[in-house]
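writing this on my phone so excuse typos. first protein, seq and then structure
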Amino acid sequence: MFSLSLQVVGKNVSSSSERASEKGMTQEDMSVATVTEISAVSDTRFEDAIQQGIARATKTLRNVEGAWVKDQNVMIEDGNITGYKVNLEVTFVLEE
């Protein structure tokens, strides 16, 4: 079983112009990154859910730079583990 949902969570990871100019960076050197939250479920293990979530994200998003495992949950029915769910925050750089 595989479940996936995408949701833009509205985080902006770019530096401010003032901080960039203090570091000697120009507008051309700066990039804007966005964070998207993805949930994925695996029948077998957490690592598989992470791999599936990243694989799905890279099908839709370009310039994926990293991911953070925000949350892990075990799904249980009648005392048995039925799934491993992860919530990922995936960072990608926006194109100009």
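second protein below, same order as before
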Amino acid sequence: MSELRASPGTVLAASPDLPDSNFSHTALVVCEHAAEGAFGLVFNRPAGIVVCQMFPEHPLLRSCQQPVFWGGPVGMDSAQFLHLVPEEIHGGEELAQGVYLGGDFEEFANLLHEDSERAMSAVRVFVGYSGWGESQLDAELAGGSWLPALLDPAVLFGGGEESAWRAVIRSISGMDGLSHQPPDSSWN
């Protein structure tokens, strides 16, 4: 069995040569990577919807205007969230650097309702996720489709679509030149 090179909390930047257009210039955080497969969340692609559209019946979330991000093409009927506030949203799983996956849903809803400004900088909501089957992510990493990097919460929670991808690429030793690549290398 090959060694897993992308543990939970690892950030993966899509290589400019990644052939799947779904992931062009994306950056994602790995949430789980085991022999059976892996899953992660793309954090730099807005989904074009806000939280109230996902939870129109929830008494606290039905008016929440926080943007939702596209976590990936799998499970588009599922919601996930990452956050930096384990003292306010209990029960999450720490991925790395104080970034938590999930937690108590009602505490999550209360934070978004009561302190929307704080939630904008400390919580990121996702629809869908990115998934890989057994050994699939290992093969993509070995083939250079994904470039592993350390998690920087400031990039995860603060960057824009393109700037987050570029910031992740610049953080990888020897890869800074790639950060200037256009989404399609044929544009050169």
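The helical segments are 51-54, 105-114, 116-122, 136-142, 153-158, 161-171. thats all i got for now
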